[in-house]
Design goal:
Blueprint lengths: L12 H16 L12 H26 L5 H30 L10 H5 L10 H7 L6 H21 L2 H8 L2 H23 L21 H18 L4 H13 L3 H7 L5 H16 L8 H20 L3 H15 L6 H4 L10 H4 L17 H25 L12 H20 L4 E2 L4 E2 L10 H7 L1 H27 L10 H16 L1 H18 L5 H4 L3 H34 L8 H10 L1 H13 L4 E3 L6 E3 L21 H21 L10 E6 L2 E11 L2 E8 L6 H18 L19 E18 L7 H28 L17 H7 L24 H9 L49 H5 L32 H6 L6 H16 L4 H8 L2 H17 L9 H9 L8 H6 L1 H24 L5 H14 E4 L4 H8 L4 E8 L4 E19 L1 H17 L18 H7 L9 E2 L3 E4 L2
Parallel strand pairs: 9-10
Antiparallel strand pairs: 1-2, 3-4, 5-6, 5-11, 6-7, 7-12, 7-13, 8-11, 10-11
């Protein structure tokens, strides 16, 4: 984000012109009268004729009926047949035009480029004109289906708006004529979108309409209106049905307005929303985490209600409802574990690739094992026994008063349980009473995790008591209340059957909500006393609970939407950066139309639809109803980047912490569709509740970007302020300090969770890497680290550990930049995947010498020619051919400035074959264990040069390290054997030769003086030296040398920060710690990614800030940290996501600097947009649905 503030345009000029061409097309159902360029008149005439064709055919049928030449039914059939013929003709012309032009048929929804394309028309029925007016259908089946539906729609529509029918409904010819004319406008709009050209709908749910479902949306709503009218025509006179028909005939006139405003959902969203609402409020279930689960659960739950209606015995209904309700409220995804499958809840691909697993996987509830089955079976048997006995002995007992009846004691018990559970839940969070007041019992200060846990111990005891009351006591008390209800005797009515099916299930599915609903019903009965409430009492307890649950849900939504509305209204003026020039006008308009605004909020709450703030301005519309998940695609889609691994690593530990928080009630009342935001350092975690049942909860965890954009920074700073006000408060609070000063913010802090997460520390190395004293010691540390690694290599080889399999050793030096390119080279096309970061940070460059040496791999003779500085770097494009095998270009002066090479002595001096090397005569038989490969002794270096550097070899350190590794190889080795091992001169000479050869080959024979040279060596970008070709051809030795250098730099970093090493023992322990607990390499290396997912305790990387000209060190340390979590206003999130969907899918406003994506400290607008599912949002990590226990 470069530009911020209120002057950012809502739509740029191009998008404004595009919108005002698209919107009239949407209103009229498809005709394009505003093209943006000159078109012949017949283009407009043809569209007008096609638009009015249904009215013409309907008018013929209506006229013949008015003249009494045909009956109403026959007239409707005639109109339908005429429309069917016209629709077939239009489709035939479209098919003919497509064949003549030879173009590919369009894919589903209209293409923006097609809309903007200027068409050259030749005559009124040319292929170009026909394709422009009627593009045709993609699938042949849709051609037939839509053509038949066009005829049926016209026939039934003619019957629906016959003048005789309208006169009978309203008793006035004038009103009937007005309704007749405007109704045909609605029918023409629907017919045009169905058969000629489909307009882009403002209510867009899917990004692409692949299967051409959009043309069916408008006819579907017309068929719903017609169905009500037909029911009124052919049923016995019912005043309510006749009144509904009158109202719907008037509402029928406003259908074009509802379509244009996007209030009516498309067909797919309508089906999913309807099933979800019926499942939750009619059948007692929960919203599901996927469309397939929703469909299956809805079908099974509906089947249970139907079975209850036909079971003759009320006792059988009670037992069947309890058993099915309990089973359907469990986490059915665990059933796969019984068949040998893995835990369904943690099937996140990121976790399978090494993300942090839950630390308590063996604890209760993670898997469906014997303990879980025993508990569930016990609960079910006890519940069925309780319900059966109470219903048999007390269910038919009649009492004149509810207060003296058998339900009275249980009613009072329910009241007590509700008060206790509510109070114990309230004290678990940072705020009480809806986030208004600070909780004085919540721990103050976040100094350390252990201190926080100790201070929180009292709340843990209260949470355990609440858990017992809510999950073990309350369900049985509610079952007892329902089993003794007298309305069970009248069960064989549809309403009562559905009501009790829901009641017995919601007891388990959502015990907390069920307890609240039952308490409300009890309070109403206690308030009524001995009085009878005819309308209320006749409903029965099951339907009463259903209505209370529906009312409570809609009231909660209304209050949340009202708070969101006030936030948008107030901040549009109080926040200077949000105050546009139109802010005063919009505020005055909202104030003057306050009843209309309240009506919009109320309607959106009643429909459970998002409240859409247009462009996030105080212009409120009712968005179309959609499922709680808000998005049609599967959960778990993200836009991954290198930073995604941090969220992937913490997702398992965070899920375990959320499991505990949900069980304790720390995050408040949990309902599917709730959103939470977690914050730790620069990480933002977005948590969404997908579904909930008895003892389990399903969530989706998203990770937001870590890049410090301006908008992201502004909102992140406000999030930190909100959390600090809640968690970093003083020990003693004054009266005014006890209020939540950020109550109007979308975020309400809830709790702090202990999560195993990486803490990221970055340091500027000025004064360390450029210190001559430190650099002089780097050479000695390098030799010691190399000796330690060489001896350790021998130990591992002796024990049977292959070096290539020891990638978990924790240091990136195992795979240098050059070796990485070998493993993922451009020549290995089979290893490519869509997840490869082809345009990410580039590794350090490779010299031609490195490429040549790596290609040879020690199997071909080394070319004696050296690489020219500044020569072009390239990789071999041939699968198995080394670059050295190609005939190189020899520019003039290649040998100038390069070491002279005697070609006649090259075979003897530069390269001794392994067979010609003298055999090593070790004085100690155990020395053979520490022997090095023969090829490592063939460095093309003069012996005199090695002798001159011999003082650099730390003999004391070599003997000390040998003494420590010797017993590890031989077990209980005697002191004499260890002494003989240390005094073996041949072994020492061997390691001296190899170590000094590596020192020379890396150019480290003289003390380091340049930080840039150190950085290049650390990155594996080794400048050309005399022995570099030899060293790079020995890959294992090259990797050991590079790792040794990285170890030595880490030693330099630690000693500069913490002080020098005081003994060899301390140095040895430090190197062991590096090997065991550290990854030391580069952020761009694959080893960094793998180490994070494998949860290496520490990671270190050296980097360079080119803008500041400094070198930086980055340290990641894995530890248990407190992640602060707060609840977001769910209706605010849904409203902003609804606007995002409208703005991008309909208005195509994808400007990265648009107003609706700018930072908003109260609404958290930028973060909310990021958290949306792709392609509209861009979270860098999104987990699959995570199912975990919450008992």
């Amino acid at each position: 984000m470069v530009r911020m503030g209120p002057d950012v345009p809502l739509l740029n000029e191009y998008k404004q012109e595009f919108f005002w061409k698209r919107f009239p097309q949407t209103v009229l159902g498809g005709p394009r009268f505003k093209l943006g360029y000159c078109a012949p008149p017949y283009v407009y005439v043809n569209q007008v004729v096609l638009f009015l064709t249904p009215w013409l055919f309907g008018g013929i049928g209506t006229l013949l009926c008015q003249l009494q030449l045909l009956q109403e039914l026959h007239g409707a059939v005639l109109s339908g047949m005429l429309m069917f013929g016209a629709a077939a003709g239009v489709q035939a012309l479209a098919f003919y035009a497509a064949r003549r032009s030879g173009t590919v048929e369009r894919l589903g929804a209209p293409n923006i480029l097609v809309d903007e394309e200027e068409v050259e028309f030749t005559h009124c029925v040319s292929p170009e004109t026909v394709r422009f007016i009627a593009p045709g259908k993609r699938f042949g089946m849709n051609v037939v289906l839509h053509t038949v539906l066009a005829g049926v729609l016209c026939g039934f529509g003619t019957w629906y708006v016959f003048l005789g029918r309208l006169t009978a409904l309203y008793g006035s010819i004038g009103v009937s004529l007005v309704v007749f004319v405007l109704s045909w406008v609605t029918l023409c709009i629907a017919e045009y979108s169905l058969i000629v050209n489909t307009a882009t709908e403002t209510a867009t749910f899917q990004a692409q309409d692949i299967y051409e479902i959009t043309p069916l949306t408008r006819p579907l709503y017309i068929f719903i209106f017609i169905a009500v009218d037909l029911a009124d025509r052919f049923s016995d006179p019912v005043p309510e049905l006749q009144l509904a028909s009158q109202i719907l005939h008037v509402l029928f006139l406003f259908l074009p307005l509802l379509w244009a405003l996007g209030i009516l959902p498309p067909l797919d969203a309508l089906i999913l929303w309807g099933m979800e609402q019926a499942l939750v409020f009619g059948l007692g279930g929960s919203p599901m985490s996927s469309n397939l689960r929703l469909l299956l659960m809805f079908g099974v739950s509906a089947g249970v209600a139907v079975c209850n209606y036909f079971i003759p015995s009320t006792l059988g209904v009670v037992l069947f409802s309890i058993s099915t309700g309990f089973l359907l409220s469990l986490d059915l995804s665990q059933v796969g574990t019984l068949c040998g499958g893995s835990r369904a809840g943690f099937r996140d691909p990121g976790l399978r690739r090494g993300g942090s697993p839950p630390p308590l996987r063996s604890s209760f509830g993670w898997n469906l094992g014997c303990r879980e089955l025993l508990l569930y079976l016990s609960l079910l048997l006890v519940a069925m026994a309780e319900a059966g006995l109470l219903h048999h002995f007390l269910g038919s007992a009649q009492s004149q008063s509810f207060v003296t009846g058998p339900q009275a004691p249980v009613s009072y018990l329910l009241l007590v349980l509700f008060c206790l559970c509510w109070a114990l839940r309230e004290i678990q969070g940072a705020y009480v009473f809806g986030g208004v007041f600070l909780n004085p019992l919540y721990p103050k200060g976040m100094s350390s995790v252990q201190t926080f846990k100790q201070r929180n111990r009292g709340l843990y005891i209260a949470a355990a008591l609440r858990r017992v009351l809510l999950y073990l006591v309350s369900p049985f008390a509610m079952i007892a209340f329902l089993s003794m209800d007298t309305s069970l005797q009248l069960l064989h009515r549809v309403s009562l059957s559905v009501g009790f099916t829901r009641a017995f299930r919601v007891v388990w599915q959502s015990s907390e909500d069920a307890l609240l609903q039952m308490v409300v019903v009890v309070l109403v009965r206690l308030a009524a006393g001995n009085n009878i409430l005819p309308g209320w009492d006749n409903l029965g307890t099951g339907v009463q609970l259903l209505l209370v649950g529906l009312l409570f849900d809609r009231l909660t939504q209304f209050l949340a939407k009202l708070k969101f509305t006030l936030t948008v209204l107030v901040t549009s003026w109080t926040e200077k950066k949000q105050r546009r020039q139109s802010a005063g006008t919009l505020l005055a308009l909202n104030a003057s139309l306050c009843p209309v605004l309240l009506a919009v909020v109320t309607l959106s709450a009643l429909l459970s639809a998002p409240l859409l703030p247009l462009f996030t301005l105080p212009i409120f519309l009712v968005g179309f109803p959609r499922p709680q998940r808000s998005w049609p695609g599967p959960v778990g889609t993200a836009c991954p980047c290198p930073d995604s691994i941090f969220y992937q690593q913490m997702s398992g530990s965070l899920a375990s912490a959320l499991r505990t928080a949900f069980a304790r009630g720390s995050l408040g009342s949990l309902a599917p569709g709730s959103h939470f935001l977690g914050r730790f350092q620069d990480r933002m975690v977005w948590i969404m509740i997908l579904e909930r049942g008895y003892g389990y909860c399903t969530v989706n965890i998203k990770g937001l970007e870590l890049q410090e954009t301006s908008c992201h920074t502004v909102e992140a700073r406000r999030v930190d302020e909100v959390f600090e006000a809640a968690f970093e408060r003083p020990e003693r609070l004054g009266f005014t300090q006890g209020f939540n000063l950020h109550w109007g913010n979308a975020l309400t802090p809830c709790a702090a969770l202990a999560v195993r997460v990486y803490s990221d520390a970055r340091n500027v190395l000025s004064g360390i890497i450029d210190s001559h004293d430190n650099l002089r010691k780097l050479q000695d540390d390098f030799m010691k680290a190399l000796i330690w690694l060489l001896l350790r290599y021998c130990v591992q080889k002796h024990k049977g550990f292959l070096w290539s399999n020891d990638e978990g050793s924790g240091v990136g030096g195992m795979k240098s930049q050059s070796s990485q390119l070998d493993s993922s080279s451009l020549t290995s096309f089979g290893d490519w995947s869509d997840e490869d970061d082809l345009f990410g940070p580039q590794p350090a460059r490779r010299t031609v010498a490195l490429v040549t040496a790596e290609a040879q791999s020690g199997h071909t003779a080394l070319q004696t020619g050296a690489s020219l500085p500044g020569s072009v770097e390239m990789d071999s494009l041939f699968e198995n051919m080394a670059l050295s095998a190609l005939q190189p270009l020899q520019p003039l002066g290649l040998g100038i400035g390069m070491p002279a090479v005697d070609k006649g002595r090259s075979a003897e001096f530069l390269r001794e074959s392994p067979g010609s090397l003298p055999h090593l005569n070790f004085s100690c038989p155990q020395s053979e264990v520490f022997n090095l490969p023969t090829g490592w002794r063939t460095a093309p270096l003069l012996p005199s040069r090695l002798m001159s550097l011999r003082p650099l070899f730390p003999e004391d350190w070599f003997r000390f390290t040998l003494g420590r590794f010797g017993p590890a190889v031989q077990g209980d080795t005697s002191e004499d054997m260890t002494k003989a091992l240390k005094e073996d001169e041949a072994l020492k000479e061997l390691h001296i030769q190899v170590a000094l050869s590596c020192l020379i080959s890396l150019g480290a024979e003289s003390a380091f003086t340049s930080p840039s040279y150190v950085y290049r060596l650390y990155c594996g970008d080794v400048p050309w030296t005399e022995g570099l070709d030899w060293l790079s051809s020995r890959k294992e030795l090259y990797q050991l040398a590079l790792r040794a250098f990285r170890f030595s730099f880490k030693l330099l970093f630690d000693q500069a920060s913490l002080g020098p090493m005081e003994s060899s023992e301390e140095l040895f322990s430090t190197l062991e710690e590096y090997e065991r607990d550290w990854f030391i390499g580069l952020v761009t290396e694959k080893g960094w990614h793998d180490s994070v997912l494998q949860e290496k305790p520490f990671l270190f990387s050296l980097g360079q800030d080119l803008t500041m000209g400094t070198y930086t060190g980055r340290v990641l340390s894995l530890q248990e940290q407190l992640v602060q979590v707060g609840r977001l206003n769910g209706e605010g999130v849904r409203g902003q996501w609804a606007n995002l969907s409208w703005e991008l899918l309909y208005a195509t406003n994808d400007d990265e600097e648009r107003y609706s994506i700018q930072a908003h400290p109260f609404m958290l607008r930028n973060l909310t947009v990021q958290a949306a599912d792709p392609p509209l949002g861009y979270p860098i990590y999104s987990s699959a649905p995570l199912h975990f226990p919450s008992l």
